[in-house]
Amino acid sequence: MSPMDFLPFALPDITDREIDAVVAALRSGWITTGPRTREFEQRFSAAAGGGEVVMVNSCTAAMHLALEAIGIQPGDEVIVPTMTFAATAEVVRYLGATPVLVDVLAADHNIDPLAVERAVTSRTRAVIPVHFAGMPCDIDSVTDLGRARGLVVIDDAAHCFPCEYRGRPVGTWADVTAFSFYATKTMTTAEGGAAVTTRPDWAERMRVMSLHGISKDAWKRYSVEGSWYYEIIAPGFKYNMTDIAAALGLVQLERAEEMTDARRRIADQYDSAFAESDTFEVIPRHADRGHSHHLYVLKLRPGALRVGRGEVIERLKQRGVGASVHFIPLHLHPYYRDRFGYRPDSNPIALDLFERSFSLPIYSRMATADVQRVVEAVLDIAREGRR
Length: 387
Ligand SMILES: *Cc1c(COP(=O)(O)O)cnc(C)c1O
Known about the structure:
binds pyridoxal-5'-phosphate; three-stranded antiparallel sheet; 14 helices; Aspartate Aminotransferase, domain 2; Aspartate Aminotransferase, domain 1; alpha/beta; seven-stranded mixed sheet; 2 domains
């Protein structure tokens, strides 16, 4: 097999339109935060339910800014599902607060609202639900609980755009929503992210803190309507988005629905191959929610094969198929385990899901024949490995 035959796990969907837009930004004379970033903020706001948008250089930055804006302090607790990427909990540590890692639901790998309720203490200030693989969690239960217990809800929507929940677009479900435009996500600016909120004071604080805590941004300072004067009101961060990234994002945003439709067709193909399998389990979709199909996760049924999940991924690789695992639960990692005293069975559902899960390639440019090739590889491995 030549390296050209290897089917990657993820691939960005970049057309000539994105390339032309980036070249135009490069030729314009303004390459960092400027008019394209402002336009991207306005257009993204329209697609995310109308809240104020602060474009930044990652979802991690957006979550950090959100926690800072709501006033998270050392000693505060923030509830985070253990089944997530590093970013969701590390931002809590940036502010010296304690991430409390809770278990997820076996049905959809999403945060368990009852586990959130059990984890609330007098020190809890916020909860950061993740919409695993692109399917919304039971967000209404989380926000109801947040309202009852005085918690701020910050959505980690890194997997979840575009999407709807009971007719409402993502960006309107929580107090603040953080989006990712990382290279593998459903729309990309290579690196990038957005924070969305309807609270004007939080939006203003996030905007100021995203650029050194300076009360006016550089574009306004150097453009004709600006002036040389600025004030530093807090020691901020350096999280601003470039206009090169925004140029890419403006085109990706226009194509976001079309790219999600393509992902959905791939997920449908996988579902029809695996939904009735006695070797694998798929994650069933909820009837009342959309799905952005960022990931396609399959699980081994307990005892179905002689080989484990790791061996399945290795055999897929030998057949030229890139697979991955989402995620190694945070409470199993040395840092969280040792610093906060978790044991593997502290979150038993996430542990079990992790041990049986693997993620198949899914991206909008993936050809139907390639999806079929993945299906055949998975079914072959199942046949060979059967007890
Ligand atoms: C990718 C990802 C992030 C981080 O996004 P960046 O834009 O790379 O900072 C955060 N949370 C989850 C669940 C992710 O998958």
